[in-house]
Amino acid sequence: MAGAHGKTTSTGMIITALLGMNQDPSFVNGGVISAIGSSSQSGKGDLFVIEADESDGSFLLYDTAIALITNVDPDHLDHYGSIEAFHQVFADFANKSKELVVINSDDFGAKAVAKLITKPMLTFGEATSADVRVSEISEDAQVSFSLSYRQESYSATLSIAGRHNAINAAGAVATLIGLGFGLEESIKEVANFGGTERRFELHGERRGVKVYDDFAHHPTEVSAALNGARAVVGDGKIVTVFQPHLYSRTRLFAKEFAKALEASDEVVLLDIYAAREDPEPGVTGELILNASSNQDKIHYVNNWSDAPAVAARLAGAGDFIVTMGCGDVYKMVPEILEALES
C-alpha cells in the first residue's frame, strides 16, 4: 500500500476486512489499528499486507503481488528533486507488481503515474470511469457512501469521519476485489474499521472542549483532516495546534499550508519539527504565517510551554482543539487538557 496520503488508513481497512473474513494475514502498518491495539502481526495465512514508505524509495525493495496507490501528491521533493522523478518512482513501484495495480482515478498525480504503468490496473474513485466507483457521499460524525463495481452497488457507513475516508474505503475495497473477494462482503468488512491512532483521535474533553490529535503533515492532509473535523464539530470552532514537519516541506509548501489552515477558525502555529533535517536559515513556522491571507487568526507561538494555554484560551464549550503534525505535537495533548481545566 503506497501513496502520499491515506496509506495507514487504507492499510488498516484492508487488514480489518481480512481479519473479519478469517484470513489471518501477516501485516505491518504505519499506525496502531485501534480495534486491534497493534500495528503488526505475524499471521498464519498466506497474505502479507504492508504499508510501504515512499519517502526514500525503499518501497521499491518489496516483492509485490498487488500494489495499491492511494494518490501521488507531490512530497519528499527534497529527496527526489522533481515531480517527474516522484511520479517515475511510483510507476517503478507499480510495475514491480506481479498481478495487479489498484490506483486512484481522481488524483492528478496518480493519473500521470497510470500512463507509465504497464501492468493490469483496477481504478477507484468518484470519476465515472472508475472501476470501483464511490458516490452519494454524505458527511457528519460518520461518512456514508455508495460503492459500485460492474453491475453491483452497495451502501456503507464508516464509524470515522471525512470525505477522504470514503475514497480510502473505495481503494481498500478495490484491493480486496483484486484479491478475489466479493464487493458486498468487502464493503461490509471495511465498514467495521474503527480508525488508527493519531488519525483524528479523540483524547479527552474538558469544559465542553474536545481535544483531538491528527497525523496530518502535508497541505492536502491538513485540508482533508480539517474538512472532516468541520463536518463533526457543526457550529463549534476548530482550534488547530499545527506543528510543521521538515524545513524543506515548510519552505516548499508554506503558501499551501496557509491555505489549508484557513479551514480552521483559529490556528496556534508552532515552530518546525526538524526530524532528519538540519535547520535552514530563514525557514521557520513564521513562513506559514506570512503566507496567510488571514493572519489575525494565526497565533505564532515559538515557545512550546506557552502553546497549551493559548489554545485553551481560544476554545469554548462545543469547540474542538486539534493537535496536528507528524512530529511530537501529540505530546502536547495532556498539557492542553490540563490548561483547559485551569
TrEMBL record:
Residues 2-175 form the Mur ligase central domain. Residues 198-327 form the Mur ligase C-terminal domain. One of its GO terms (molecular function) is acid-amino acid ligase activity. Transmembrane segments: none annotated. PANTHER family: UDP-N-ACETYLMURAMATE--L-ALANINE LIGASE, UDP-N-ACETYLMURAMATE--L-ALANINE LIGASE-RELATED. This is Unannotated protein.
